[in-house]
């Protein structure tokens, strides 16, 4: 087998070259030198004659058993020469095609010959004409000569390859499996096979420090324990570790869990950095300083029980590095564990030697037993089919399983391969393949993986090898990878036939997924397993190359596909440039002022380049040399900068894909500016362009922004097109775009002039479109009536003075029957004249609008889509009748139809005829008054496949008619949603198979019944419904739930969720309440607050309830609620009771983890709430009479509380004894105006020198205090070790106290803080005075600070910034008031990476920015500041030039 060149590629290229050359000779015969022409023709003739031998050599090599490494060196060299010659020919064919496209666009006279060939005098013109002045002729002669020279040597190798098929090449090669391979802690497999014992043993060892696999107690139970898991590659070490690492009990047992993938390079600083990456991310000093890293790890795990997983460890020699790694880990709490996974058995010995004082365990993860391996292989081999249907294949599979040696990875890969060909003969061939014994070591795993590769279709080999240029664990986007394959020439057009390149690429991709070479992730991307990535790298080492770090000198000249990931930009200038390089991916993370120069230097000379992908934060201009890369098919540009797009694309006629990610563009208008730049560069001449995207975060600009985009006849994707009544943007631009795929949204159809223009779009020829949307943008009729003056907008067509006159004339009590002398002003005459003119004008406007509406009907009738369309949406249509083509079933393959905002449509098309229709949405159709029988289409089965039916915003809908024979109505319906249909009182019976019902603002007076036919009713079996979710909101006419389908609760065996709220007239519940719903888990019910009916608590709720919300009349149900022992979630809202149940009653709720008490206005105490021992989340809102919350009142009942939220408790003064809830992680207190203190108050609480002296026993994820104006101190924080995110807003007394403390004894930046043990990661305040408050003023490790009112920034605040300069990474400042300059101390914030300033209208100057800063964002500032910060010329530019991302907006 040869990975260098495929015979069919060479044959197609050479054949096409010969044909193109002869056509060129004929066309240019009067211009070419006949000597050169004859020489080239003779060379082409010899090439055709000798190619039969070439073909035989290539065929035998391609089908032979040897790889490139095993091949004769001379033959290997010849193959590379031949590939070079073939690709030179391919480049020349590209040049010929480029010439043809140029002639087609500009005409022959428009072709610009390079200056070196351009005649400068009449004499030179004559000479050049005689000797051949066309540069293509010179290139053709060179290519023919190159090919002729290589082919001439074919005979020397023909005899050599005859015996290749019978040679046995078994040279031992050491497998390099220690390449970089990153793994993560998230589970990648939903099920593991045959590891029950290992899981149990390791789990028990983790949860019990005294556990020993032999049953003995460990002698040193107070030390850190280590386990080394050893197993060959692919045996499932990582999968097993992920299963255990994510175990709930394991997570709960350890206070710190860390996962580090070590891979081939064992570096103590790198491993330690990964362990504390969150704490020191972005800090270069930390990344390289072993001492700082060891100290950071020590602080992180001191007195903490931790679990550390070291996956994929290879190093068994570097004793010093191991000691440096283990040293800080010895500070962990007793019971801490380290799990090491490796393929190298000697690593276990190294770990044991280093951890002499620790308990060491050894786990040898062997291959799966045969009985366990069979189910794993079957899972992948018979995926998607019934296993029992393939008895013969099962027997063969059992024999294959024995040969695979129980390696899970191989079972997955080979199983995927077998699944694609469920053929007995194929499986037997796989069984007979020479699979070497796996018991000998890792080398055999590679051989088996290579066997799977060899069994792939040959056409997939190059595509798989191509993936090696991406880093391990790279998340592939399917479309991106396919388009890169296309552009790189891995899916040649000559092989696709009538299919699209994309379709063939998708076939290749899906085959690689089916054979488990690519794995789908949970983010809808794909990845390659580490072992397979290593295989790809090994197979493509002379073809694909990846440069990481700063080593770029060893790039072979044979490389065709190259990826570069570097930090040092200067490397680009000296990097080798392979002559026939086709793919270049460059990713860099640092900034440099000469970046554009470095990129131009690298790209210059890469004339064969097809794919260019550039990623980096600081690319501030396009490399202009791109304009010379005429073979480019794919350009992807990803930067944080907003850069101008130069004129460098307009001659790249081969371009297929342009993706530009300009992340600094914050809105669509910015992107449109960039789009206009491209439009100005004759962008529409790129007739080969298939995909275009201009992106910024969540904003996308379509190619339809370019005038004349209709010339891009190869375009495959056009998501949005907004029609305009101007040249280049009319609907007729779609005329030639018959290759469009996917979905298309056409907006602005009101700008289409007439049906002729609509017909010219030729939508019926767009046979590849899957989804089509029509949108009318300008008719804003949402709040207007569909007829009369309201519809036409009278207020816009009548002058204000005339309206005033009309109002006066209509309101004055003047009797014109009397003889009133008004002088020359006859009011009656004037008024009557005005009324006549107004009526005439109104009638004229109505006629014009009716004409426009009829025109829209004609236009929509002419926009008939292709009959194969699957999804259709019509939005804003103003005609009265549906389009003819939707009525007569001419697009009968539809699976989804949406009619929305069609304000005048009065009748619905016969959608029931659409036999494949699964989704129907009717939204905002205000003229529809009834659903007539016409909609069903007169079929035997009405809507036979419909699964989802939604009707919304139909204010006039009153009746829903059903044909008498309605037994077959909606037989497959799963979801019914009715919303904003206030006049609809009844709906047809619903099928038993429905899953979800959602009624919101519907005029139903009763619930519908189930529809059962006579056969079902006469059946002796009990009928059952599939309904699982019922939601009824705001149905004002619904008085009873005792009628309809809820009265037959025996059917409702699957109903698990019920929500009933906003039914103001509800007076009756189902008989027996909801007790018959034995599967009910989640119930939300709101009782009418004003009704005189009192609902009884007897027999109301089933014991199965787990989540319950009750709004109003809560006091009637409290006693019964406390018997629902399965409750885990309880929310109670609005009650007039003055007392909550006592502790004895609340203790019955042993599973309750969430409790919310809202608007209990009369309670003064929380009663038995304190006794809820399992409660994690407590929320108290609007309890106005509650004065005190004392957690000591319930003993230690709330010891598991994690989240506490108190809002709008107007009389609350004290929140005390928080030591009881020391488990608390989030505290949120808002709008409690009388709250004066938050106290910890342990009984052992004492003070030394006025300071609390107690152990810090609390850690907070969130700490939020807002609108508590009487709060005087943050004493609670003295008992808190750390807070992840804290915020303080509008606490006036706290601000005053802060100023008092600062004037008394504020600690300056130059002295040592008294107590800096509180750690806060992120702090947000609305008043900088809080920074002076104890203990906040003593913080030294803040990473993120936001000050929302900086008008009062002072020197003390600057001191606070300085004492946190070593840790602060992000700083957000708002409302700077009169500040004209930021403090000079900013230069000293050495860790700062992001500075965001908002509302700084007086700001005119900036200090020198720190070298660490990566992002500078200033918005709503003085325009003078923007001018001073102009790139390269601004006065302040030297102070900010080093920052990669700068965005300054006045």
UniProtKB/TrEMBL annotation:
Q: Tell me the ranges covered by the Disease resistance N-terminal domain, including all copies.
A: 35-107
Q: Domain (Disease resistance protein winged helix): give its ranges.
A: 469-536
Where would I find the NB-ARC domain in this sequence? 220-383
Give a GO molecular function annotation for the protein. ADP binding
Checking Pfam families in the record gives: LRR_R13L1-DRL21, NB-ARC, Rx_N, WHD_DRP
Q: Name one GO biological process term.
A: defense response to bacterium
Keywords (A to Z) from UniProt: ATP-binding, Leucine-rich repeat, Nucleotide-binding, Plant defense, Repeat
Residue stretches making up the R13L1/DRL21-like LRR repeat region domain: 731-804, 822-924
Entries under Gene3D superfamilies matching the protein: P-loop containing nucleotide triphosphate hydrolases (3.40.50.300), Ribonuclease Inhibitor (3.80.10.10), Winged helix-like DNA-binding domain superfamily/Winged helix DNA-binding domain (1.10.10.10)
UniProt xrefs under PANTHER family: PLANT BROAD-SPECTRUM MILDEW RESISTANCE PROTEIN RPW8, TIR-NBS TYPE DISEASE RESISTANCE PROTEIN-RELATED
Hey, which family's this protein in?
Answer: Belongs to the disease resistance NB-LRR family.
Q: What is this protein called?
A: Uncharacterized protein
The species this protein was found in: Rhynchospora tenuis
């Amino acid at each position: 087998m040869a990975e260098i060149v495929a015979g069919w590629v060479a044959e197609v290229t050479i054949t096409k070259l010969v044909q193109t050359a002869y056509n060129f000779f004929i066309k240019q015969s009067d211009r070419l030198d006949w000597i050169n022409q004859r020489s080239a023709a003779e060379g082409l003739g010899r090439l055709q004659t000798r190619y039969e031998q070439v073909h035989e050599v290539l065929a035998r090599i391609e089908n032979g058993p040897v790889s490139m490494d095993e091949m004769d060196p001379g033959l290997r060299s010849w193959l590379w020469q031949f590939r070079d010659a073939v690709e030179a020919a391919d480049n020349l064919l590209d040049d010929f095609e480029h010439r043809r496209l140029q002639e087609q666009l500009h005409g022959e006279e428009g072709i610009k010959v390079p200056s070196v060939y351009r005649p400068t005098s009449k004499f030179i013109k004559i000479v050049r004409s005689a000797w051949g002045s066309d540069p293509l002729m010179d290139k053709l002669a060179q290519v023919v000569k190159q090919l002729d020279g290589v082919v001439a040597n074919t005979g020397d190798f023909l005899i050599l390859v005859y015996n290749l098929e019978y040679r046995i090449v078994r040279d031992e090669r050491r497998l390099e499996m220690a390449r970089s391979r990153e793994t993560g802690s998230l589970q990648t497999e939903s099920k593991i096979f045959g590891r029950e014992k290992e899981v149990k043993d390791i789990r028990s060892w983790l949860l019990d420090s005294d556990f020993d696999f032999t049953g003995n107690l460990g002698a040193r139970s107070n030390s850190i324990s280590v386990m080394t898991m050893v197993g060959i590659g692919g045996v499932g070490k990582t999968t097993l570790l992920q299963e255990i690492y994510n175990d709930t009990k394991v997570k709960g047992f350890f206070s710190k869990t860390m996962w580090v993938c070590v891979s081939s390079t064992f570096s103590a600083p790198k491993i330690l950095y990964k362990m504390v990456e969150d704490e020191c991310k972005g800090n270069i000093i930390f990344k390289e300083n072993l001492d700082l890293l060891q100290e950071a790890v020590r602080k992180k795990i001191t007195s903490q029980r931790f679990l550390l997983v070291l996956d994929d460890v290879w190093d068994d020699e570097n004793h010093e590095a191991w000691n440096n790694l283990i040293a800080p880990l010895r500070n962990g709490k007793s019971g801490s564990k380290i799990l090491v996974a490796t393929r190298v058995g000697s690593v276990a010995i190294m770990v044991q030697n280093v951890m002499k004082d620790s308990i060491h365990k050894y786990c040898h993860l062997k291959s799966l037993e045969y009985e366990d391996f069979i189910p794993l292989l079957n899972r992948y081999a018979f995926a998607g089919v019934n296993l029992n249907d393939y008895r013969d294949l099962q027997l063969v599979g059992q024999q294959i399983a024995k040969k695979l040696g129980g390696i899970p990875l191989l079972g997955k890969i080979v199983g995927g391969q077998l699944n694609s060909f469920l053929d007995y003969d194929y499986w037997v061939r796989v069984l007979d393949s020479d699979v070497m014994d796996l018991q000998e070591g890792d080398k055999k795993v590679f051989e088996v993986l290579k066997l799977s590769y060899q069994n792939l279709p040959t056409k997939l080999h190059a595509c798989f090898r191509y993936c090696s240029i991406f880093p391990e664990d790279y998340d592939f986007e399917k479309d991106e990878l396919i388009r890169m394959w296309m552009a790189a020439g891995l899916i040649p057009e000559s092989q696709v036939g009538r299919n699209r390149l994309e379709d063939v690429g998708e076939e290749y991709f899906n085959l690689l997924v089916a054979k488990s070479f690519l794995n789908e992730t949970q983010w809808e991307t794909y990845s390659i397993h580490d072992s397979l990535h290593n295989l790809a790298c090994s197979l493509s080492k002379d073809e694909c190359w990846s440069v990481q770090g700063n080593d770029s000198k060893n790039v072979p000249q044979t490389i065709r596909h190259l990826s570069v990931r570097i930090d040092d930009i200067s490397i680009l200038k000296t990097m080798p440039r392979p002559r026939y390089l086709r793919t270049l991916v460059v990713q860099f993370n640092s900034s440099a002022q000469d970046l554009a120069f470095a990129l131009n230097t690298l790209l210059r000379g890469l004339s064969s380049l097809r794919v260019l992908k550039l990623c980096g934060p600081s690319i501030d201009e396009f490399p202009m040399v791109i304009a010379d890369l005429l073979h480019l098919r794919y350009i992807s540009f990803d930067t944080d900068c907003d850069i101008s797009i130069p004129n460098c694309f307009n001659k790249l006629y081969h371009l297929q894909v342009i993706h530009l990610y300009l992340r600094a563009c914050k809105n669509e208008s910015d992107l449109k500016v960039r789009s206009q730049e491209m439009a100005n560069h004759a962008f529409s001449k790129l007739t080969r362009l298939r995909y275009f995207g201009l992106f910024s975060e969540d904003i996308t600009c379509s190619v339809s922004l370019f005038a004349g985009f209709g010339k891009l006849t190869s375009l495959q994707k056009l998501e949005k097109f907004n029609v305009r009544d101007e040249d280049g943007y009319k609907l007729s631009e779609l005329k030639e775009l018959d290759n469009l795929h996917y979905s298309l949204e056409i907006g602005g159809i009101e700008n289409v002039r007439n049906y002729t223009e609509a017909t010219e779009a030729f939508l019926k020829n767009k046979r590849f479109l899957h989804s089509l949307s029509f949108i009318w943008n300008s008719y804003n009729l949402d709040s207007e009536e569909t007829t009369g003056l309201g519809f036409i907008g009278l207020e816009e067509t009548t002058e204000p003075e005339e309206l005033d006159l009309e109002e006066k004339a209509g309101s004055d009590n003047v009797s014109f029957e009397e003889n009133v002398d008004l002088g020359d002003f006859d009011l009656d005459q004037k008024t009557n004249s005005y009324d006549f003119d107004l009526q005439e004008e109104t009638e004229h406007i109505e006629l014009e609008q009716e004409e426009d509406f009829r025109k829209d009907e004609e236009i929509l009738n002419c926009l008939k889509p292709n009959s194969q369309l699957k999804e259709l949406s019509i939005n804003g249509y103003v005609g009265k009748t549906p389009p003819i083509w939707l009525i007569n079933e001419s697009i009968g393959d539809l699976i989804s139809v949406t009619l929305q905002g069609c304000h005048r449509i009065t009748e619905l098309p016969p959608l029931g005829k659409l036999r494949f229709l699964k989704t129907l949405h009717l939204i905002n159709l205000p003229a529809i008054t009834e659903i007539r029988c016409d909609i069903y289409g007169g079929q035997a089965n009405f809507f036979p496949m419909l699964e989802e039916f939604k009707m919304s915003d139909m204010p006039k809908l009153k009746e829903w008619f059903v044909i008498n024979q309605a037994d077959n109505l909606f037989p497959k319906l799963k979801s019914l949603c009715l919303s904003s249909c206030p006049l609809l009182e009844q709906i047809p019976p619903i099928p038993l198979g429905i899953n979800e019902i959602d009624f919101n603002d519907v005029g139903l007076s009763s619930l519908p019944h189930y529809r059962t036919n006579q056969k079902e009713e006469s059946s002796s079996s009990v009928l059952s419904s599939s309904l699982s979710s019922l939601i009824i909101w705001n149905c004002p006419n619904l008085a009873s739930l005792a009628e309809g389908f809820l009265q037959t609760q025996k059917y409702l065996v699957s109903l698990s969720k019920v929500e009933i709220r906003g039914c103001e007239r509800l007076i009756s519940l189902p008989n027996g309440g909801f007790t018959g719903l034995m599967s009910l888990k989640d119930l939300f019910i709101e009782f009418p607050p004003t009704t005189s009916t009192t609902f009884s608590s007897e027999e109301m709720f089933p014991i199965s309830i787990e989540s319950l919300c009750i709004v109003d009349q809560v006091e009637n149900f409290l006693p019964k609620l406390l018997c629902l022992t399965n409750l885990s979630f309880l929310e109670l809202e609005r009650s007039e009771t003055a007392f909550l149940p006592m502790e004895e009653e609340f203790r019955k709720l042993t599973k309750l983890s969430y409790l919310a008490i809202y608007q209990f206005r009369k309670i003064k105490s929380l009663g038995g709430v304190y006794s809820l021992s399992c409660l994690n989340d407590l929320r108290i809102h609007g309890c106005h009479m509650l004065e005190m919350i004392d957690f000591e009142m319930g003993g230690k009942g709330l010891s598991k509380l994690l989240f506490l939220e108190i809002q709008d408790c107007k009389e609350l003064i004290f929140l005390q004894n928080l030591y009881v809830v020391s488990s608390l992680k989030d505290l949120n207190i808002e709008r409690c105006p009388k709250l004066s203190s938050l106290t910890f108050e342990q009984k052992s609480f004492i003070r030394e020198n006025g300071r609390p002296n107690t152990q810090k026993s609390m850690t907070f994820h969130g700490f939020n205090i807002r609108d508590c104006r009487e709060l005087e101190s943050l004493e609670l924080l003295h008992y808190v070790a750390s807070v992840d995110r804290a915020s303080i807003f509008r606490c006036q007394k706290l601000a005053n106290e802060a100023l008092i403390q600062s004037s008394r004894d504020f600690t300056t930046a130059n002295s040592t803080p008294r107590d800096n043990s509180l750690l806060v990661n992120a702090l947000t305040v609305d008043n900088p005075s809080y920074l002076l408050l104890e203990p906040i003023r003593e913080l030294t490790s803040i990473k993120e600070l936001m000050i929302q009112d900086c008008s009062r920034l002072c020197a003390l605040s600057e001191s606070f910034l300085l004492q946190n300069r070593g840790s602060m990474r992000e700083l957000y400042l708002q409302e700077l008031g009169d500040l004209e300059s930021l403090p000079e101390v900013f230069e000293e914030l050495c860790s700062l990476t992001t500075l965001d300033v908002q509302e700084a209208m007086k700001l005119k100057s900036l200090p020198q920015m720190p070298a660490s800063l990566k992002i500078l964002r200033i918005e709503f500032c003085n325009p003078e500041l923007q001018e001073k910060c102009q790139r390269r010329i601004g006065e302040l530019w030297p102070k900010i030039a080093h920052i990669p991302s700068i965005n300054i907006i006045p």
